[in-house]
Amino acid sequence: MTVPAPPRDASPPGQPKKAATAAWVGSALEYYDFFIYGSAAALIFPEVFFDESDPATATLLSLGTFGVAYAARPLGALFLGHVGDRLGRKKIMVFTLMLMGLSTFLIGCLPTRAQVGTLAPVLLVLCRVLQGISAAGEQASANSMALEHAPPHRRGFFTSFTLSGTQGGQLLATLVFIPVAALPEEHLLSWGWRVPFWLSVAVAVVGYVIRRKLDETPAFARQTATEGVVRLPLVVLARAHWADVLRVVAGALIASVSTIFTVWALAYATSDAVGMSRSSMLWVGALANVVALAAIPLWAALSDRVGRRPVFLAGAVGSAVTMFLYLWAISTGNYPLTLFLGILAFGVVYSAANGVWPAFYGEMFPTRVRLSGVAIGTQIGFAVAGFAVTFAAHMAGPDGDDWTAVALFTAALCVPPVVAALSARETHRTPAERLGERTAPGGAAQPEKVTA
């Protein structure tokens, strides 16, 4: 009896689970580093690095440094996407993790403004830029690795582990900051805030051990052995895939929901205008992330059955509504209501879009430019999302309490992702070797002829 040959880009048995695990653990460790900065920017850095300004200005400046990493991410995506499509996904996954660990550890070692003056915030910004460069290549390389190892018709589920890992890292960062935030003020501002950043050394070591043993994807190996790698992925993207890059940019604006929930809402809830405690609000984020860990793979598995577009659309539209309700709940000072709506908005509804985009974006591009296309598109969109926190702080007014303006701003940022999804192709049933093919008006596939 003849045994049917596996698909030409099929992974060896066990590799899909191994790739998904490496994506989950690596992303969790990487984004632990990235998100502890967000908590510190909202709760600590205004008093440590910007203490010579009035409280409102100090908070605005601190949140601005949070956005700096997002500004650096498009530049990092250009470089790391280029290298990843030429040298492989694995090398980028290891490099980004080590760079994130180093830059985060250095933040924990920085002198304060009271010690060295304006040099302190300058050094803080430089370290944050390194974090941004690292994050630029992390998700795109992990997504590509998981997608290209995934079995047919389960690509959504397997690639979602990258994003559930990101939520796991955010949860870990929040849990670490809960006891730190409970320290007496004197200890918190002198040494306590540094501890989560110092732990990044252990993060980097664990991540390196896990990722260095991962195999390169069969799709990339086949691309290298047959057609060869692209010398200039950016040129191919600009000529043949520019529309999908723009779709990814627009879709990635959905990340504004995450940054406003994680940073601005935390700062608003703990401000004098509302007066909730730091620890109680950190628990909102922690519990919402626990729910997201379960919701993300469930939404992604649903997208394998019904398609990427309907699930993504449900998350984008739903986030615009539920974030409005969440910010309203904070304004009332009602903690149980805030907790419930925070879990609903971030843990359940936002997870629909968040869980499906790794497959949705990755399936828009062929193997030869997948990492570049996803990295560049997402990081441009994420750059806007990062500075959404700063814009939100400005829109909230001098007293920082105009939550309605921030809610409307967040809803407006959910519109481009909706447009992007409505204009995109449905790809959940497209064979792996045909992903990224352009189609003629009648629907026939057109071979890609662009070389670079």
Automatic annotation (TrEMBL):
<feature type="transmembrane region" description="Helical">
    <location>
        <begin position="92"/>
        <end position="113"/>
    </location>
</feature>
<feature type="transmembrane region" description="Helical">
    <location>
        <begin position="281"/>
        <end position="302"/>
    </location>
</feature>
<protein>
    <submittedName>
        <fullName>MFS transporter</fullName>
    </submittedName>
</protein>
<feature type="transmembrane region" description="Helical">
    <location>
        <begin position="191"/>
        <end position="210"/>
    </location>
</feature>
<dbReference type="InterPro" id="IPR011701">
    <property type="entry name" value="MFS"/>
</dbReference>
<dbReference type="Pfam" id="PF07690">
    <property type="entry name" value="MFS_1"/>
</dbReference>
<keyword id="KW-0813">Transport</keyword>
<keyword id="KW-0812">Transmembrane</keyword>
<keyword id="KW-1133">Transmembrane helix</keyword>
<feature type="transmembrane region" description="Helical">
    <location>
        <begin position="60"/>
        <end position="80"/>
    </location>
</feature>
<dbReference type="InterPro" id="IPR005828">
    <property type="entry name" value="MFS_sugar_transport-like"/>
</dbReference>
<dbReference type="InterPro" id="IPR036259">
    <property type="entry name" value="MFS_trans_sf"/>
</dbReference>
<feature type="transmembrane region" description="Helical">
    <location>
        <begin position="337"/>
        <end position="361"/>
    </location>
</feature>
<dbReference type="InterPro" id="IPR020846">
    <property type="entry name" value="MFS_dom"/>
</dbReference>
<feature type="transmembrane region" description="Helical">
    <location>
        <begin position="403"/>
        <end position="424"/>
    </location>
</feature>
<dbReference type="Pfam" id="PF00083">
    <property type="entry name" value="Sugar_tr"/>
</dbReference>
<feature type="domain" description="Major facilitator superfamily (MFS) profile">
    <location>
        <begin position="19"/>
        <end position="429"/>
    </location>
</feature>
<feature type="transmembrane region" description="Helical">
    <location>
        <begin position="248"/>
        <end position="269"/>
    </location>
</feature>
<feature type="transmembrane region" description="Helical">
    <location>
        <begin position="373"/>
        <end position="397"/>
    </location>
</feature>
<keyword id="KW-0472">Membrane</keyword>
<keyword id="KW-1003">Cell membrane</keyword>
<feature type="region of interest" description="Disordered">
    <location>
        <begin position="429"/>
        <end position="452"/>
    </location>
</feature>
<feature type="transmembrane region" description="Helical">
    <location>
        <begin position="311"/>
        <end position="331"/>
    </location>
</feature>
